[in-house]
Amino acid sequence: MEASRRDRPRSIRVLRGVLPVRRSMVPVDIAAGLTLAALGIPEVLGYARIAGMPVATGLYTLLLPMAAFAVLGSSRHLVVGADSATAAILAAGLTGLAAAGSPRYVRLAALAALLTGALLLLARLVRLGFLANFLSRTVLIGFLTGVGIQVAVSQLPGMFGVTVTSTGTGRGTVIRFVRLLIALPRAHVWDVVISAGVIVVVLATRLVSRRIPGALLALAGAIVASHLADLDARGVATVGPLPQALPRFGLPALGFHDAEVLLGTALSLFVVILAQSAATARAYAAKYQEHLDEDTDLVGLGAANVAAAFSGTFVVNGSPTKTEIVDSAGGRSQLAQLVTSAVVLVAALLLTGLLADLPIAALASVVFLIGIGLVDVAGLRRLLAVRPSAFAVALGSALAVVVLGVRDGIVLAIVASVIDHLRHSYHPLNTVLVKSAAGHWEAMPVTPGKRTEPGLVIYRFGTTLYYANASRLLADITALARPVGPGDPLRWLVLDGVAIGDVDYTAGLVLSRVIEELHAQHVFVAISSLLDPVRRQLDRYGMRGTDGPDAYYETPGEALGAYHAAAQK
Question: Is the pLDDT of residue 8 over 50?
């Protein structure tokens, strides 16, 4: 894999997600782009609200940022735009730095996008795309569930037409919910009616077909009802006038202090974008058996966020929901996303004035449903059924986001991923190989005195050997060397290293000590199925000649044959 990557040209190729164009698919891609615009516009308006940004900036995420990835990315399917998880992380990072929606807030959001884009481009230069693998699917389920709960709770005051003060720390989900319950007697009837109507329309259209733009129909209906019934005069808060123009190009906040403050937020955004975008792009590339260049996708994602920074909008991410919208509509290339950008351009120029009468309660209801959609109950149930320990990790990640906030939650989620990995490698599945009656190898549990044959143990260590699990090697071999009865001494021990991809220095010392102790007991020590690079590591650690194993064998079967031959001498 690495060799193939090095052989690729270093020049940046463009339109890899569009070319070659299949003429028969052009009408389908255009139709998919129109579908994405119809379903995506209400979503990105909601994401702007999650991020604390002016509503119109949500539209802008579907302009230059989406087009930038379509031109510079590798994936033919990944849709890049505003995303609920990154919007929530951004809002948590900007809390307390500026008033939500203010000019300074917008410039700080642009700076966060610029820093995130720079980190993505840096990751491409130093080939850090592999970091996407460190946020496991288990933890991602929990993290997105926590984000969904936080987003949903944050929209409840708008849906009920009440004002709930924020804690200003990004950790106020529980407190906000309690304050909402206290404020419920002051709920505004018209806001509640609007919210209920929007939710009913969206859910009803989903029952018919998910291709129907239920959110768009619900928001359009709310705008018409607001205008005809003059709901503004009845105390219903509305979005208010929006600029009918292209996004304003300008510099983000560029102060060193601001960059220093936002660096942690940018790192959190970087990790989530890397993990979510890579997972989504890989899934669709595998589905259609297409080549995916993740390094090129990093360039596209970085360019998309830099474009967001200079076009007055906020950070963008590879969106699983939008990607599925295009795929289910038949779209098979980034041409669909370019069509969406063109449609949104027209909407930004001509239609934003219609949003002035949009009730905040209607928009909050759409965002509420987005948040509920992130709560992966099915995924959590599946984890609980097949792997309770993974369910506990996912649940812990969700609780961390809800209680501590998104920014700290993502850090704990990453730590949980690493701990989960270390836990498995610390307790590897080590076995003793035994021949079955049919002549096949069977893996048996390690128990004191267990033998492959009388006098012989072929012991398989189940993972890479490093400092944290080297004590397991020592404990297992000590138990195996112990005779279970009189006249049952261990004469040969074969370490099968088929699963050992590396031996670090500390583990090398432990292995050397094990070999020395076995030699002191007059036990013949051999190693089988060891990769050549790992064998060279052992040589560098001084495990050769009398200080190393007595023999190397290609397979456990060869070692078993050598044992039989030695026994006949």
Answer: no
